[in-house]
Amino acid sequence: MKKTLIDEVPLIDVEENQTKKNWHRTRNQWGAIDKLFKPHNKYEDSTTPEKGFEPGLAGLQEIVQRAVADNKVIRAYGSRWSLNNIAFTNHYLIDSSALDYCLVGLSDPSHVNPEFEAKRNRFAFVQCGVMVKDLNQKLQEQQLALPTSGASDGQTFVGAASTGTHGAAHSVGSMQDYVRGIHLVTLADECVFVQRESEPVITEAFCAWLGDTKLVQDDDLFNAALVSFGSYGVVHGLLIETEPLYLLERFIKNCDFDEVKNAICTLDMTGLGLPKGDELPFHFEVAVNPYFLEAGKKGAFVRVLYKSEYTPERAALRKNTAVNLENDLIDGIGRWFDPVKWLIPKGLQIALELSFPVSPPGELEVGFPGDQFGNASSSDPTSPSPLPGTSIEIGVPFERIEDAMNLIFSVTEKHVFGAPLAFRYVKNSSATLAFTKYAPITVTLEMPGLDDNLADEGHQAIFEALAASDIPHTYHWGQRMPANTEWVATSYGEEVVEGWKQQRSELLGEQGCELFSNELMKKIGL
């Protein structure tokens, strides 16, 4: 057995023959598990070292070695937020939720290279179990913030970044795009810290502080590992770059689809009647009821966020109601929706009205980023919705948004199912397998809603229609996707996919590639 970082025995809870569902209780996902491991940031004698992450890291190393010895596949999960099996195996699973160490600011100047000294206190090292909700709070206490985040805050940061989670900040990118380093547990006797050679933030001294960690500086490897959904080893932690705390001012409008269609296709806010006129907001998203497109139906819901400088005076205008907004549409629709087919159009409209409470004319609701991207139930062990949830999300080039939108509406005319169509705009990512790959802006089209047979039929029809079209497209790695080997190669190109596989093989070797794989990866040709 490989040596752990320290001599003490890390505390690891082990349960056999467990059954797990994801947070949204999606049908036909997850299931029986041979062994479930839960490492803790403490030793078996309940002691905790000065560097609070050490026991958890040693625990991850030990679990990986157990999987090697038992010839089992090993995967790790955070909040079980993914709507597919990308983080699942029925062999050995790691519950990372107790690994919640977070270091905000690097106090030792020797840990960063001189050219990054000015940003030293804005870097944060985030262990794999840290939830976005908790990270927002820790950063806010230091007057820092994440540059962007997803619609909800229930994910772990590592899980969200590893699957390419994004918001609608068209000038910022996705959550992986402010990651600066990746700390991996592999088969080797030492861990690996990967960063870009072109952006060498961290020094050997920081890797020595982590303990038994090899520094690897390689742009191609970093970009490949950035969105790799746990297949490049167990991600122990990520180094991220935050920014000074800012405020977001929210405005929500309900209108007819035709009133917002031009803005959806062009990002031209002219005539939309927003509080700041034609200014393009920091965050722009639209959710549309596909069955309420006619004039007078009010089937479009616009949510914008304007970014403003933090001042104590402006922050004092925050309202407690900001945290009650149902940002997670899957959860919100599941709570308020009646799944009888003939009631779907009206039921979906009611769910959207509850999820997007309209702002008074011209009134902006001020909040911190953590206020605007969160809801009260995200820390619950499972969704409070009485119904299971699912979703698909498609990425397309900005110039093809109208074609993709019309294609989806042509499907929903024939296949009625309980999901809106939400549009968001994201700066393209440099991660090799980022689904937000299209420059300069990727438009994402998400359909979050009920998980039932109607959704199955609708999703499959969309998959087939897109495959038969000439619209370039990708799928979100944490949501439902076609279960075939063709779409990945078509979306990213065979050369890119083979390069991603080659980087993985060089890092892990044949044994490691098998150890950190799973059934879904094999189904889609990775």
Automatic annotation (TrEMBL):
<dbReference type="Pfam" id="PF01565">
    <property type="entry name" value="FAD_binding_4"/>
</dbReference>
<feature type="domain" description="FAD-binding PCMH-type">
    <location>
        <begin position="44"/>
        <end position="245"/>
    </location>
</feature>
<dbReference type="InterPro" id="IPR036318">
    <property type="entry name" value="FAD-bd_PCMH-like_sf"/>
</dbReference>
<dbReference type="GO" id="GO:0016899">
    <property type="term" value="F:oxidoreductase activity, acting on the CH-OH group of donors, oxygen as acceptor"/>
</dbReference>
<dbReference type="InterPro" id="IPR016169">
    <property type="entry name" value="FAD-bd_PCMH_sub2"/>
</dbReference>
<dbReference type="InterPro" id="IPR006094">
    <property type="entry name" value="Oxid_FAD_bind_N"/>
</dbReference>
<feature type="region of interest" description="Disordered">
    <location>
        <begin position="367"/>
        <end position="389"/>
    </location>
</feature>
<dbReference type="GO" id="GO:0071949">
    <property type="term" value="F:FAD binding"/>
</dbReference>
<protein>
    <submittedName>
        <fullName>FAD-binding protein</fullName>
    </submittedName>
</protein>
<dbReference type="InterPro" id="IPR016166">
    <property type="entry name" value="FAD-bd_PCMH"/>
</dbReference>
<dbReference type="InterPro" id="IPR010031">
    <property type="entry name" value="FAD_lactone_oxidase-like"/>
</dbReference>
